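Q: Here's a chain of 215 amino acids. Please give me its 3D structure as tokens.
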Amino acid sequence: MVYNVSEKASILNVFLSEIRDVSIQKDPMRFRRNMERISEIIAYELSKKLAYNEKTVQTPLGKAEINLPVESPVLATILRAGLSMHQGLLNYFDRSESAFVSAYREHINDNDFKIKVDYLASPKIDNKILIISDPMLATGNSMINVYKALLQQGIPKKVIIVTAIATPSAIDFVEKQLPLGAEIWTAAIDDELTAQSYIVPGLGDAGDLAYGEKC
């Protein structure tokens, strides 16, 4: 299942427009906060699809019946670009465990690269809901490499991908690689991908915009 949260107009569109805007992008703190806000909105929307049980809560004046989540997902992200989105998800799923994976493009030439995964810190994910976040789903290669690396810690019962901007080709690739029942949640879908695998119109390099240009 693919969920494009911006299909229906909402306040999300403000934050999405600001992460794309070249003049607003000059403020890295605002860029990070907008990424965080986008993932908070997606967290709220996808939470509606999770399982809940009715619980009794004692108030100062009586008892209230309320539906509470059956479990907390494991939140995984791709370093370093995914950190702001991870924080947004963690703001809402605040009882979740976290996993961090370092993945980067190792360029062979101007147009060709391979994905390298060289660091992983994760709790056990066996039979848990796994949410993996990354701002850009351009080709889907990084996401699938990270997913496969995380399988060292067990087989999740459900996989959810959260991204700010995706491409149709990446969505198609990821859907074919992930297990049945996986979900992809995105704030926007952009049709074009350059020869260097950058999304157009996209927003540029999310990691650089959030944390400064890397050498």
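Q: Can you summarize the key feature?
A: The CA atoms of residues 115 and 180 lie 24 Å apart.
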